[in-house]
Amino acid sequence: MHFKLHKFAHLCKDLNEESAVRNEESIVLKRELEAVKSERDGLAEEVTRLLGEVETYEKEKAENAETKKKLLAYEKQGLENSDDAIQSRDKMIADLSSKLESALEQLETERELQRQRRQIIFPNSTRS
User: Fold this and answer.
1) Measured distance CA(19)–CA(74) in Å, rounded
2) How many angstroms separate the Cα of 90 from the Cα of each of 29, 79, 98, 99, 126?
3) Maximal CA-CA distance, the chain
């Protein structure tokens, strides 16, 4: 019986040693688990922050595209308006030029008629 008790005591001692080793491993694994959880939480926060930045970037990109589209439309409209204004100005210049030429011709005709009337009224007196 002594042998069985000795064997049982040895078995208990081995189990206690194994338990101590397992407890140490458990403590180390818990520390590692806490470190991994902390790292995971940090990465999750970074992912959330980066997703927010990506969302902001995409909004700005869409706004920039819309602004560029509006600016190009505005420039196009401005160029069309300036072309219309130039054509209108050129038509006005042509119209005024033709009216000026007509007025100059009428003025020249009036002067010629005035000269003829003067000659009729005041003939050149070459006899003196």
Assistant:
1) 80
2) 89, 16, 12, 14, 52
3) 184
- Give the mean pLDDT per block of 10 residues along the chain (128 residues): 84 92 95 96 96 96 97 93 93 96 96 91 67
* Cα 13-16-17 angle, rounded to 5 deg: 85
Amino acid at 108: E
Could you give the CA distance from residue 104 to residue 111 in angstroms, rounded to a whole number? 10
CA distance 94 to 100: 10
Give the whole-angstrom CA distance, residue 99 versus residue 77: 33
C-alpha torsion 53→57→58→62, nearest 10: 150
Half-sphere exposure of 53 toward its Cβ, with a 13 Å CA cutoff? Answer: 6
Q: What are phi and psi of 118, to 5 degrees?
A: -60, -40
Sign of CA dihedral 49, 52, 58, 61: negative
- Global confidence as pTM: 0.49
